[in-house]
């Protein structure tokens, strides 16, 4: 397919997705309106989702998990609990939990807030599941150093950058490894003013 044809196909997928998901038109009405078959309209809708033009999310109603959340709050004396529905597929489960956390951040973050960010696949998924509308002047600070073994996706530095892109604001890297060989090396790093400044900022975080 030529570049011109590919661009036209993307534009058509975007138009169909807008009519279907935003305007609420049926596939049949869209097909008639654009002069294409209903089968092609349906196929292009599926392609739009596969290629990231459309991102469909199903939000869990608060009443579904409210009773469990309240039980956890009473039992452990915590301020807030977020409970996702159980799912057999671990990746789907991870996405469900991450969506809850991302939505909570979206509702709770205020101008100037500091968010301390850790390492791992679950934390990285929060950045991927954030769909923020407005931009806020927040700071996402690494609360732990980096690791080559963790890879780009799970490293706090990269997660901070992705969160800052979604919510607005800046990211701050902790220029240190997550693990060191001995206590002496750890103490020497704590004495480094650059590392100490970032860790002190992470300790003052409004969210972690």
Q: Mean pLDDT, rounded to whole units?
A: 88
Question: What fold name goes in the CATH topology slot of the domain at 109-203?
Answer: Rossmann fold
Span of the ends, CA to CA: 47 Å
> For the CA atoms, what is the radius of gyration?
22 Å
Helix coverage percent: 55-70%
Main sheet, how many strands, which sense, barrel?
A: 3 strands, parallel
The counted number of beta strands is: 3
Strand content: 5-15%
The residue ranges in which pLDDT falls below 50 over 5 or more consecutive positions are none
- Structural class designation: mainly alpha
- The CATH architecture classification of the domain at 109-203 is 3-Layer(aba) Sandwich
DSSP helical segment count: 10
Task: Note the overall shape.
Answer: elongated
Biggest sheet strand order reads: 1-2-3
**Top CATH class of the domain at 109-203:** Alpha Beta
The H/E string reads: HHHHHEHEHHEHH
Could you characterize what this model shows?
With 208 residues, the chain is mainly alpha-helical. Among the domains are: 3-50, Winged helix-like DNA-binding domain superfamily/Winged helix DNA-binding domain (Arc Repressor Mutant, subunit A, Orthogonal Bundle); 109-203, Rossmann fold. The chain is 57% helix and 6% strand. It has a three-stranded parallel β-sheet with strand order 1-2-3, sandwiched between helices. Helix 6 (121-128) links the parallel strand 1 (114-117) and strand 2 (138-142). Helix 1 (3-22) packs across helix 3, helix 5 (90-108) packs across helix 6 and helix 6 runs parallel beside helix 8.
């Amino acid at each position: 397919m030529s570049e011109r044809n590919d661009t036209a196909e993307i534009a058509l997928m975007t138009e169909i997705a807008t009519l279907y998901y935003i305007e609420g038109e049926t596939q049949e009405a869209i097909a008639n309106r654009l002069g294409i078959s209903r089968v092609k309209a349906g196929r292009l809708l599926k392609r739009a989702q596969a290629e990231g033009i459309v991102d469909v999310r199903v939000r869990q109603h608060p009443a579904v998990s409210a009773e469990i959340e309240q039980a956890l709050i009473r039992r452990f004396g915590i301020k807030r609990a977020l409970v996702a529905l159980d799912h057999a597929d671990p990746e789907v489960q991870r996405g469900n939990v991450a969506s809850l956390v991302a939505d909570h951040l979206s509702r709770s973050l205020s101008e100037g807030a500091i968010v301390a960010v850790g390492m791992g696949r679950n934390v990285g998924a929060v950045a991927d599941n954030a769909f923020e509308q407005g931009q806020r002047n927040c700071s996402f600070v690494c609360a732990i150093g980096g690791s080559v073994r963790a890879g780009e996706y799970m490293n706090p530095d990269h997660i901070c950058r992705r969160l800052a892109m979604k919510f607005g604001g800046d990211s701050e890297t902790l220029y240190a490894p997550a693990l060191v060989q001995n206590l002496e090396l750890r103490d020497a790093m704590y004495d480094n003013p650059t590392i100490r400044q970032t860790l002190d900022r992470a300790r003052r975080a409004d969210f972690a």
